[in-house]
Amino acid sequence: MSSKVYDIVTQQITSLLEKGDIPWKKPWKSTSGPRNLITGKSYRGINSFILNCSPCQSPYWLTYRQIQAKYGRLRAGSKSQLIVFWKWIDKKDNEEVNDPDTDNTKGKIPLLRYYLVFNLDQVEGIPRPPEESITNPFTPIQQAEQIIEAMPLRPEMRYGSNNAAYSPMLDYITLPAKESFHSPEEFYSTAFHELAHATGHKSRVGRKGILEPSFFGSHTYSQEELVAEFAASMLCGVSGIEQATIENSAAYIQG
Fold first, then answer.
1. Structural domains of the chain sorted by starting position, each given as residue range(s) with its CATH number in brackets
2. pTM of the model
3. pLDDT per residue over 232-243, tens digit each?
4. Which of 185, 191, 189 is nearest to 157 (CA)?
């Protein structure tokens, strides 16, 4: 059973990587992390990573049984998210390892199981806890602001998301709130990266990496990410903030 759970988790992480959700450090934090709505306990380890990769905004998660107990209902089309759980049990209590020809009744072994959970955003009929946000002091960097303001045909920039992304189809950028970034330098580095992607739109440069669909790991995808991150690194240099973001940029480029 344990090997099956490992395979499922490995496949899930592989799928995230193929979609481009690369697990390097995010330079922002909008909530205190994913946790169970009913117990209040935070998810740790691989569960924290998996749930943080979800596009859902709420930090709260529930099992289907917990949703039913609260008289909630799932929204149409909602998909569950896998998490894992393990604990130490006595060998004699585990039928999977009991072998009549060997002595498997002594000692303890780890028992690994997986569960399916749903985000509170996918649920109707359950009151939402007061929204929490983590804010950091944000002092605008004038030179970086001037670069953003001076961009020709700059796309719309929307704030308040839990991720940073550029939509080639709709031509707009989503970013977390400025105050959720660890520092102003990290905000501008991220904003520059997404604005660099936007230069590939047909109304601007018309770059292949934006105009044509590409899959994670392909030459076109990698080339587009390099364009965006090198552009961000150069703009940070012009703004005088390159040292504050170079470690994260290097990890991004390596990925």
1. 31-124 (no CATH), 142-254 (1.10.10)
2. 0.55
3. 888 888 888 754
4. 191
